[in-house]
Amino acid sequence: xxxxxxxxxxxxxxxxxxxxxxxxxxxxxxxxxxxxxxxxxxxxxxxxxxxxxxxxxxxxxxxxxxxxxxxxxxxxxxxxxxxxxxxxxxxxxxxxxxxxxxxxxxxxxxxxxxxxxxxx
Length: 120
What we know:
mainly beta, two-stranded antiparallel sheet, 8 strands, 23% strand, rod-shaped
């Protein structure tokens, strides 16, 4: 008989297990490594140091934050001098219009660090 050993408590799992991160877990042991909340088998989770991390903790603690609004950035971003930005949080210093992702190749950064549209 195959023994299933829990990835958290290292105890045998006689029945009702979860498989995640290439390990077996008691359902109540499959917890977020940050907040401790049980991660449901149907929800998106991430991995940090071999433990599951729930989506809320991942975006709150491990995703880069925008240098303007301080909100997490999921997806594309603009990076300048190791600071990450949502495109829409930056406005052209000449015309005042916000930037769009599709304009990435038309954004200039002046010597003083100001962002401007290439055609302004």
